[in-house]
Specification:
The complex is a heterodimer of chains A (396) and B (235). By secondary structure, chain A is α+β, with helices and mostly antiparallel strands. In chain A, strand 5 and strand 6 form a beta hairpin. In chain B, the strands form two sheets. Chain B has a six-stranded mixed beta sheet with strand order 6-7-8-3-9-10, with helices on both faces. Chain B has a four-stranded antiparallel beta sheet with strand order 2-1-4-5, covered by helices on one side. The chains are: A alpha+beta (396), B alpha/beta (235). Bound molecules: adenosine-5'-diphosphate (ADP) and magnesium ion. Magnesium ion (MG) binds next to helix 1 of chain B. The site of magnesium ion (MG) has 4 residues of chain B, from helix 1.
């Protein structure tokens, strides 16, 4: 074995430039696979943590009738929490949200919206709800509201603009008021931005004529989900609330598999050149090894080890330039060339890739395995020939 | 008393061709003693290479017996056959078959690596073998930097370095001009005389034939004549 490794090294180093070009290509695939996968992991992680920070908290309680995707359920999905809970909400320990339908008329256009009342004191979500607190000295009958930058842009509204809102209260009666956009916030999470108008929860409750009632509640930490609610509310775990994005990520990773395939094929071409084509090119060399005292299986082993040495050299080279490159990416992140918000996926355009040991080892094993395989298979094929045949040497 | 190196009895070799068989060697009987400098001669297709390959344990007989150093070729396992080649047989080919990415030194060293000789032993023996063929100055060259004659002399050094009992040389001069052919043949003859190594050639080259001390003529897979030439280069 030691001798075979020695000879394999000799053979590769002896082949000179050709070996190094192949090692370079292989190492490139190695780094690129880790890099792309790292960006996807980072994106996934970032999207989830942003969703947690902006929308979910550490889980939510939903009114049993509430379906975020079906606005017809919203009229019937609210209830009053217990008195202790009401106090806790007032103190800002939970983010309580009342969800209702409405229509706004910016610049005379009609835009159906989701009105979300939230307690302005909340400390659970990253939403800048303190902007919704109307300062005492301001004399204005307009309701202070805020929205995300995407929504503001879509409605062509800026801070300070006023517009009309129409909604139906709990008795089904239409009502209308002026709203004033007091804050446009930037968020990487589209679900708190597009189509959403945020206002003080107690104001929305007033507008609807439903004091203290809420639709859902975000909790700040895992411990607080022990919290007793009336049975009108159901707990939704983070896992459940992230399942949509999870599905999206999985679909995305299917798309990426094509990427891997391309990279792997590229890597394998490098090995293919030396190992598979060598079925023909090195045929006589194989016969020579046999004449000098190798068995067929020892020749197969030698060629397989050559493949392994390739993977090793490529990994070493990948370490030389891949380590600083990936470290730099890890620290400084990667600016996506496209606007991810257009995909409706949470996450900013600046992604900090994540590189786990499992990812690096997994990629190494993948490359090493494929390399060994494309070295083993053709060598086995030639060695199966009669050694006298391989020595005929018409092909040189 | 000379030792029997090769003992062949009623050897038949058939190759499958289409639905039938082609008989490449037909009932060969042959005995070669240690120290011989013998050659299989005959026209192309007469079975010289086939016989040499069997004697070199690269192929096996269809029937009959081929004993090489008292080992029955047909009964050897892959590992035993490889060991026989590794320890006792040196090959010289028409196409030299040097390992292309190795230097001259490394090519000659290779059989000793397989025999697990120490570095010191290897160094001594490789230098000695390079001296036999007069190529010490080329020890760091690659095969593609050598002429045909030099390549074949490296191949001889590689075949001889482990001092095998038997050297099998298949058309060793076919790719060489007259001057290089004679140089190579002189080298082999000298090694045969000095070290007592047995040589068996396969050739149809007159230059080789005039060096042989025994001529085994093959025709259509059969031995047509087996004789000692009157006029030999050494006489
Ligand atoms: N693997 C094989 N399959 C079929 N026929 C073969 C094979 N090897 C050799 N032969 C045939 O056997 C005969 C002898 O071949 P060979 O020993 O190479 O002759 P020589 O070396 O004397 O020129 C030839 O007719 C050749 O075509
Ligand atoms: Mg021949």
């Amino acid at each position: 074995m030691k001798l075979a490794i020695y000879i394999a090294f000799k053979n590769l180093l002896g082949a000179g430039l050709r070996t190094w070009i192949n090692v370079l290509v292989l190492s490139f695939s190695f780094v690129a696979i880790i890099w792309i996968k790292g960006i996807m992991l980072g994106w996934d992680h970032q999207a989830k943590s942003q969703l947690i920070e902006w929308e979910i908290g550490h889980g939510q309680y939903w009114h049993t009738n509430y379906d975020p995707n079906d606005s017809f359920t919203w009229d019937d999905s609210h209830a009053s929490p217990s008195d202790t809970l009401i106090n806790a909400i007032r103190e800002g320990r939970y983010a309580a949200i009342f969800v209702a339908q409405g229509v706004i008329y910016p610049e005379g256009r009609m835009v159906p919206v989701c009105l979300k009342g939230i307690n302005t004191t909340q400390q659970v979500l990253k939403l800048p709800t303190s902007f919704l607190i109307r300062e005492e000295n301001i004399q204005s009958s307009a309701i202070p509201v805020m929205m995300g930058a995407y929504m503001a842009n879509a409605c062509q509204l800026k801070e300070g603009d006023q517009f009309l809102v129409r909604w139906r209260d709990m008795d089904g009666v239409f009502d209308a008021r002026e709203m004033e956009l007091v804050k446009v916030f930037a968020t990487p999470v589209p679900t708190v931005d597009a189509g959403q108008i945020w206002l003080d929860c107690s104001r929305l409750q007033n507008m609807m004529g439903l004091n203290n009632e809420i639709t859902l509640l975000s909790i700040p930490s895992y411990e607080s989900n022990e919290l007793l609610f009336s049975n009108e509310f159901q707990f939704k775990s983070i896992e459940f609330l992230l399942s949509d994005i999870e599905k999206m990520v999985q679909m995305k990773s299917k798309g990426q598999s094509v990427f891997y395939l391309v990279l792997l094929v590229l890597a394998m071409l490098a090995i293919f050149d030396t190992q598979v084509l060598s079925v023909f090119k090195r045929r006589r060399e194989i016969g020579t090894y046999i004449a000098l005292g190798y068995t067929r299986s020892e020749v197969v082993r030698l060629f397989t080890i050559e493949g392994g040495v390739y993977a090793l050299l490529a990994s070493a080279l990948a370490l030389v330039y891949g380590y600083p490159f990936l470290l730099w990416q890890y620290r400084n992140g990667f600016k996506m060339p496209v606007d991810v918000a257009e995909f409706g996926i949470a996450g900013s355009n600046h992604i900090y890739p994540l590189f786990s040991l499992a990812l690096i080892l997994g990629t190494f094993l993948l490359i090493a395995f494929t390399t060994l395989l494309v070295s083993y298979l053709p060598a086995r094929k030639i060695a199966a020939l009669n050694p006298a045949e391989t020595l005929k040497g018409r092909l040189s | 008393m000379p030792e029997t190196i090769i003992q062949v009895d009623n050897l038949i070799k058939q190759f499958p061709v289409g639905k039938g068989f082609f008989t490449a060697l037909d009932n060969i009987c042959l005995r070669i003693e240690s120290g011989e400098f013998a050659g299989l001669i005959g026209p192309s297709g007469s079975g010289k290479t086939t016989l040499l390959n069997i004697l070199g344990s690269l192929d096996s007989p269809s029937s009959g017996e081929a004993l090489v150093l008292n080992k029955s070729i047909g009964k050897l396992g892959a590992k035993e056959a490889a060991d026989l080649r590794k320890e006792a047989i040196g090959f010289i080919f028409q196409t030299y078959n040097l390992l292309p990415v190795h230097t001259v030194y490394e090519n000659v060293e290779f059989p000793l690596l397989l025999l697990k000789r120490t570095k010191k032993e290897r160094n001594l023996q490789v230098e000695e073998a390079l001296e036999w063929v007069g190529l010490q100055s080329k020890r760091n060259s690659r095969p593609n930097e050598l002429s045909g004659g030099e390549s074949q002399r490296v191949a001889i050094a590689r075949a001889m370095v482990k001092r095998p009992k038997l050297v099998l040389a298949d058309e060793p001069t076919a790719n060489l001009d007259a001057k290089n052919s004679f140089h190579v043949l002189d080298t082999m003859k000298e090694l045969n005389e000095r070290l007592g190594v047995t040589f068996l050639f396969a050739t149809h080259d007159d230059k080789v034939i005039q060096y042989l001390r025994r001529i085994i003529e093959l025709n259509d897979g059969q031995i047509a004549r087996d004789y000692t030439p009157e006029k030999n280069i050494q006489s």
